[in-house]
Amino acid sequence: DLAPLIVEALARQGARIEVWRDADSGAGGLGQTLQINVVRTPVVAAGVWSLGAEYANAGQPAPNGYAAVSGRFHRTDYSFGANLYSFRRRLPGHRTLTAGDGRNLGHVIDDSPRAYVQYAANGELAHDAWGGRLTAKLGMSHSLYADRSQSRDVDTAGRLTGRAANPYSEGKDALEVGLSFDHPLFGGELKLAALATRKGFDSAIVSTSTAPDGTLWARYAQDIHHDASEDIVRATYTRNLGRHRAEFGVESAVNSLDAGADVSLDLGGGPFPLHIPNANIRIVEHRAEFHAGDAWTLRPGWSLESRLAWETSRLDFSGDTTSRVRL
Predict the structure, then answer these.
(1) 102, 118, 235, 252: least surrounded by Cβ within 10 Å?
(2) Which of 207, 111, 109 is nearest to 165 (CA)?
(3) H or E element, residue 9
(4) CB contact at 8 A, 286 and 313
(5) CA–CA separation, 177 and 72 (whole Å)
(6) 6 phi and psi angles, rounded to 5 deg
(7) What is the CA radius of gyration of the chain?
(8) Is 301 exposed, middle or buried (0-12, 13-18, 19+ CB in 10 A)?
(9) Beta-strand (E) ranges in the chain?
(10) How many CB atoms lie within 10 A of CB 205?
(11) Is the dihedral of CA 27, 31, 34, 39 positive or negative?
């Protein structure tokens, strides 16, 4: 039942309700003898928020929370939101080393303190402009994870026989910006849209093993990064034709990916690089698409949908590999 929701919306956003009858309504040309005019308040807003913290075995509080607000300012609708999530935890462990014949060789004592934090925010604005509806969107996020894992090897007498450290960290970033415009045209609806997306990822680990006196046995280092982008422009036109709903659209996009990796190994005589085939590469795609579709309503509850599309794509590779591919 939508009646309670409608009543609540009017109570929150309605300034007054005007009822015009007969000639006073000014709607005689539309064949109406009664017109109801709902006058809304020029400004309305509502929101929600939450704030808390996680306290785990790391002994430090990790805050968490979110906030969101939405409303209208005259002819502009808006909504904004943000959230925070984090944790700090320790994951200790104890392992037993056993020989093939079942003899106890010692133990490995692990400690893995780790932390994670993520921030995110988004917003949207919608405004009536140029006879249509203009909408702008923005979203962004950032996260960071760190693990300071380390271990100690001891024999059956409890003597230290070796150490290992594996600190690892990774970060992620994302940004998305969008703009769209909806406008009635020739009895149908035209929608124009543009979208830009950026994503980044990077990680690093240094895995080290040493003797009890600190002598280096081996050190492995790895750094990886990925940066991706996507830019899209799109135009779509839809119109109802009797029991048919026709759609025509065109889209163009440029996508890219930059990937890189630096890997090295040190066995005590100094680090030397390890070559990973195609680890450092850039890929750029140029894509275009045209499509036409039809949704035919055969009877209530049944429809037949058809779509015809043409797409072309070109991939350009550079870096460790250089080539061009057309699809």
Answers:
(1) 102
(2) 207
(3) helix 3-13
(4) yes
(5) 21
(6) -65, -40
(7) 31
(8) exposed
(9) 14-21, 34-40, 43-55, 61-73, 76-90, 93-98, 104-111, 113-129, 132-154, 160-185, 188-210, 216-241, 244-266, 271-273, 281-299, 302-319, 323-326
(10) 16
(11) negative
246 residue type, one letter? A
Polymer length of the chain: 327
**Burial annotation 56-70 (CB, 10 A radius, 16+ → b, else e):** eebeeebebeeeeee
Kindly report the CA angle at 169 between 163 and 173, in degrees rounded to 5? 175
Which residue's structure tokens are 């509080």?
61
Distances from the Cα of 228 to the Cαs of 120, 132, 171, 173, 258, in angstroms?
19, 33, 14, 10, 6
How would you write the pLDDT of the chain (327 residues) with one tens digit per residue? 556 655 665 566 665 666 666 554 444 444 555 566 666 677 778 899 999 999 988 888 999 999 999 988 888 899 999 999 999 999 888 889 898 898 998 999 999 899 999 999 999 999 998 889 999 999 999 999 999 999 999 998 889 999 999 999 999 999 999 999 999 998 899 999 999 999 999 999 999 999 999 999 999 999 999 999 999 999 999 999 989 999 999 999 999 999 999 999 999 889 999 998 888 999 999 999 999 999 999 888 899 999 999 999 999 999 888 898 988
